[in-house]
Amino acid sequence: MTRNLILCILFVSSVLCTNFQNDNYKYLQEVKRGFDEYITTDKRPSYLNESLAKFSLPNLFRDNAYIGTTPTKEVHAVEDDIVCGLCYLAANFIILERRKGMPRLHLKNEVAQLCQVFKIESDITCDGVVELNIDVMLYIIDNNVNVTGSRVCDILLQSSCNSTEFEWTVDIPEGQSPSRPEPVGDSTFKILHVSDIHMDPLYTQGKVKSCNEPLCCQVDQEDGDSNTGNVCGYWSSYGNDVSEHLVDEMIRFANTLEFDYVYFTGDIISHRIWSTSEDNNTKTIKSLMNKFRTGFNVPVYPILGNHEPSPLNVYEFQNTATSNLSTQWLLDLVETEWSDWIPESARDTISQGGFYTVSPKEGFRLVILNSNIAYIFNWWLIESDKDPYDQLDWFVRILEQAERNNESVHVLFHHPSGDKEILKVWSREFNKIINRFANTITAQFNGHIHVDRFQVYYNESNKDQAINVAWNGASLAPYDYANPSFKIYTVDSNTFDIMDIEEWTFNLTLANLHPDQSPEWYKIYSFKDAFDLPALQPDDLGNLLIKMATNHSLLADYHIYRYKNSESAVEAGCNSDCQKRYLCQLSTYVGTDSSKCSYLQELYDQNL
Ligand SMILES: *[C@@H]1O[C@H](CO)[C@@H](O)[C@H](O)[C@H]1NC(C)=O
Ligand SMILES: *[C@@H]1O[C@H](CO)[C@@H](O)[C@H](O)[C@H]1NC(C)=O
Ligand SMILES: *[C@@H]1O[C@H](CO)[C@@H](O)[C@H](O)[C@H]1NC(C)=O
Ligand SMILES: *[C@@H]1O[C@H](CO)[C@@H](O)[C@H](O)[C@H]1NC(C)=O
Ligand SMILES: *[C@@H]1O[C@H](CO)[C@@H](O)[C@H](O)[C@H]1NC(C)=O
Ligand SMILES: *[C@@H]1O[C@H](CO)[C@@H](O)[C@H](O)[C@H]1NC(C)=O
Ligand SMILES: *[C@@H]1O[C@H](CO)[C@@H](O)[C@H](O)[C@H]1NC(C)=O
Ligand SMILES: *[C@@H]1O[C@H](CO)[C@@H](O)[C@H](O)[C@H]1NC(C)=O
Ligand SMILES: *[C@@H]1O[C@H](CO)[C@@H](O)[C@H](O)[C@H]1NC(C)=O
Ligand SMILES: [Zn+2]
Ligand SMILES: [Zn+2]
Questions:
Q1: Ligand 3, atom 5, residue with closest C-alpha
Q2: Following DSSP, what letter does each residue of 144-183 receive, concatenated?
Q3: Residue nearest (by alpha carbon) to ligand 3 atom 13
Q4: Which of 182, 229, 305, 541 has the most crowded CB, counting CB atoms within 10 A?
Q5: CB atoms near residue 354 (< 10 Å)
Q6: What's the whole-model pTM score?
Q7: Average pLDDT of 563-587?
């Protein structure tokens, strides 16, 4: 946010504020007056709600806003500066009141009311989420004398507030990994990639599939209406999570295909974010891991998603071990649950921070990162944002050893780096590491976004050269209106490069019409064929983005694959705004750098 607006909001000086004269700015001043009066008089002014209610910010913290150009959530029209200013005022108010001794219950009600007045989520969701999060917020305020509203908002709303205050670097050795042999592909093996299962034990056929909460089809929600079509189907429903029998079905069908390893890129727990608990999450995590253990007879390499803790997103990394706010229960749980697949020697780092490295085969190494700590909704970043768990530092040391040992590395982590909810400085440093070890890292694998995607990384010293690719596993959950799916990679047995990718899916609408039959799974595409590529090396993918920018029917094809031919995606289509947005998503890997995206968009416009 501009410095003058910050000063203007915090100090309301007519000189500083002369440039900000629109209506929203006037309402913002009313909000400030209301909070100030509350702080000085200890009484909630009667007009405060009315001033706050001038701003409507529905679904402010939900991502994935569109299918094509059709919004999948309400989109607010308030300027970034103003959203950020409101956040500064509200957060400063909460912090000040806490310092003055306002008790937990009272503060909790204030935060929940803010969530409700701004219509960020339904009253039920606001109450539930605030109840789950308030103790962490208070702990951080109580134990960090220097915490300010601006620090809170600069993290939580990093795209709106656009702060530059976060600045740290990781030590990376000079040089460049030696280049590796090109894959020949005469001997290969396969990897099954499953992501974002969001297994929902409360999923109930016959309930409403569209409701005011972030998740519907819940046992305690209203019955659906088959006349209007607002009713949850047997297997799952678009916009929602996954029944246990769909998880079993996915494992059954996957086993009719061949693969040697399973990559699972996180998100086990459902989107019932307003009522999670350590006990319930533990049960669901154990239950899914048990399905993997008994269902797959090959090693599974799992990672943690942002939904696994309770409350979701909140990974504590400051060793607040004595506090009941610690995430240690989760790290200890997965250390045990993953022990069938991860040797004991590799498990220390799991209990330390949810990351690990293993070598499944001679010359081949996996590095599993816990990127959730860099997610902007993780409150502990307010205390400290510098390389949580020293994980990136550890990553560099593992890569140095791998380089020395001539190993080929696959890196797995939940959030695609560079996405707008990943702390920008984290993705910038991560990208430096990718650049340094580009030849050692043969592929990256992500989840979280629930649609099919890949990201091309470029050489920082020569943006024409593509140097790495991250493949997204899409999701079993149709939460973002895509059909359920998984991928199978063909991998070169000598170099461990990705040779080809198949994506498997089924038509969920059709499957729900026949609950008594298995869904009709089919292979929707093979990557090389679909995009007519000689290979899937980084430069092939770099060339593909250029081809997409010039031949837009490739982007139309990508739109269908992205949602795996779901009805809403077919209906919505993807116009030129949507296609240009895709070009950016495929080429952005550091939140602060849009140069490749602008270049591809210009190329797109020249080829209309
Ligand atoms: C202000 O709004 C909140 C949320 O809608 C509501 O719970 C509260 O009762 C309102 N307070 C007043 C004084 O109207
Ligand atoms: C708070 O900020 C002051 C001034 O920048 C600094 O000297 C002090 O060490 C900080 N305290 C903590 C606990 O970070
Ligand atoms: C964010 O800040 C940077 C650096 O101050 C500036 O270059 C950029 O234009 C800003 N972006 C937005 C969207 O305000
Ligand atoms: C835990 O799950 C049970 C159903 O299995 C449910 O009744 C209960 O409300 C859940 N607890 C929380 C805190 O959500
Ligand atoms: C956590 O501990 C604090 C202080 O010991 C206590 O007040 C609070 O109720 C506890 N919270 C939970 C969820 O157990
Ligand atoms: C990136 O470009 C620089 C300068 O041309 C070169 O030295 C370096 O090897 C390139 N990096 C990779 C991974 O190829
Ligand atoms: C490094 O590994 C590759 C296979 O990934 C192999 O072809 C090459 O010969 C190895 N190089 C050395 C120096 O061992
Ligand atoms: C999916 O199945 C439904 C129900 O049979 C059908 O109307 C729809 O056209 C199918 N979608 C596709 C893309 O084939
Ligand atoms: C554009 O891509 C389509 C595949 O979607 C292909 O059939 C067509 O031949 C391509 N056109 C050109 C000019 O390359
Ligand atoms: Zn997810
Ligand atoms: Zn996620």
A1: 164
A2: -TT--HHHHHHHHTHHHH------------SS-PPP-PPP
A3: 162
A4: 305
A5: 28
A6: 0.96
A7: 96
pLDDT in tens, 296-342: 999 999 999 999 999 999 999 877 656 789 999 999 999 999 999 99
Mean pLDDT of 283-308: 98
Could you tell me the residue ranges of all domains in the chain?
2-161, 188-204+241-534
Q: How far apart are the first and last CA of the chain?
A: 35
Write b or e for each residue in 233-258: b if 16 or more Cβ atoms lie within 10 A of its Cβ, otherwise e. Answer: bbbbbbbbbbbeebbebbbeebeeee
Ligand nearest to the CA of 163: 3
181 Cα to the center of ligand 7, angstroms: 7
CA angle, 273 as apex, 254 and 233 as ends, to 5°?
Answer: 50
Distances (CA, A) of 574 to 87, 124, 570: 34, 34, 9
Strands 356-361, 364-368: pairing is antiparallel
Choosing from 131, 273, 275, 284 the residue with most ligand 4 atoms within 8 A of its CB, the one to mutate for a pocket test is: 275
Query: Span 188-204+241-534: which CATH code?
Result: 3.60.21.10
Buried b (16+ CB within 10 A) or exposed e, 176-213: ebeebeebebeebbbbbbbbbbbbbebbbbebbbbbeb
Strand partners, 310: none
For residue 336, give every residue at least 6 positions away whose Cβ sits within 8 Å of its Cβ, in sequence order, or none.
Answer: none
